[in-house]
Write a structure and sequence with these properties.
Distance between the termini: 37 Å
Strand content: 15-25%
Oligomer: single chain
Order of helices and strands: HHEHEEEHEHHHHEEH
Helix content: 25-40%
Number of helices: 9
Number of strands: 7
């Protein structure tokens, strides 16, 4: 397979920095190649990292051209890497066989508005139907930089209709090896699921809304940042909460809140 990826992009796979769209695109191309060459796998279509942004900014007509060279009636799954607000990688899946739309995210948060947008787009792109929408319960990251490899691992599993039973500690190393070898391989030993996918990829439990909006006018000190990073390093439980004290303000933060705050600060 002819796949070109720069040295700079490859170096990201040996760092603790955010992965670029070049890395994500390269891996999704490997998934597409595997699905095309192995007849026992679901028929998939992988899309580019700009699809969701174009859809949100310009509407379904701006993205219809992505499907000109494929027979939609033969597709089972459409896999879309989303660079959400240019700071976070996540995965969207259209299951065309079952009429489902999945949002799969390593930092779970309310994406009901985005799912409604995808529902409307689905009717335009694939024909009117009653779509099942779900924000899927999936393994989550506990740092600010791992969203890219989680997105790739989700996509690899979905492309085989397999569960998310991969080990999260070495995802980046596995991703780097697959790109170097130019071959997409399972991140886990989970076997393909023959039943209805919505029974495999179940909706996550609803969490309280993010506390980030409460912090818009709060000055976060250098010591606050140190304490938040220490908390992330020590805790492995999503529901654990960190008490942020800034002057007279006290806000309790979930793990996802801290990750989002740190990602936004790094982005700025």
């Amino acid at each position: 397979m002819e796949m070109h990826i720069s040295n700079e992009a490859m170096q990201l796979l040996s760092s603790q920095k955010w992965l670029s769209d070049e890395v994500i695109t390269a891996y999704f191309e490997l998934l597409q190649q595997r699905a095309t060459s192995e007849s026992n796998l679901p028929k998939i279509k992988t899309l580019d990292t700009y699809f969701f942004t174009s859809l949100r900014n310009r509407g379904p007509s701006a993205v219809q051209g992505r499907f000109k060279k494929c027979n939609i009636n033969e597709l089972e799954l459409v896999l879309i890497p989303v660079h959400y607000n240019n700071i976070h990688w996540t995965l969207v899946v259209y299951d065309l066989r079952e009429g489902s739309i999945y949002w799969i995210d390593s930092i779970p948060d309310d994406k009901s508005t985005e799912l409604e947008l995808l529902r409307s787009a689905g009717n335009t792109l694939f024909g009117d139907r009653t779509w099942y929408l779900a924000e899927v319960d999936a393994p989550s990251q506990n740092n600010t930089w791992a969203c890219g490899e989680f997105t790739c691992a989700y996509a690899e599993s979905v492309a085989r209709r397999a569960p998310f039973d991969f080990e999260t500690c070495n995802l980046r190393d596995q991703l780097r090896l697959q790109i170097v070898q130019r071959k997409a391989s399972p991140f886990s030993t989970g076997q393909p699921y023959s039943g209805v996918l919505r029974n495999l990829y179940r909706p996550r439990q609803q969490h309280p809304p993010s506390a980030c909006k409460e912090l818009e006018d709060v000055w976060i000190t250098k010591q606050n940042l140190i304490d938040m990073r220490k908390f992330l390093h020590k805790t492995k439980q999503r529901k654990s909460r960190f008490l942020l004290k800034t002057g007279i303000n006290k806000v309790r933060l979930y793990q996802k809140d801290i990750i989002l705050i740190l990602k936004r600060l790094e982005h700025n």
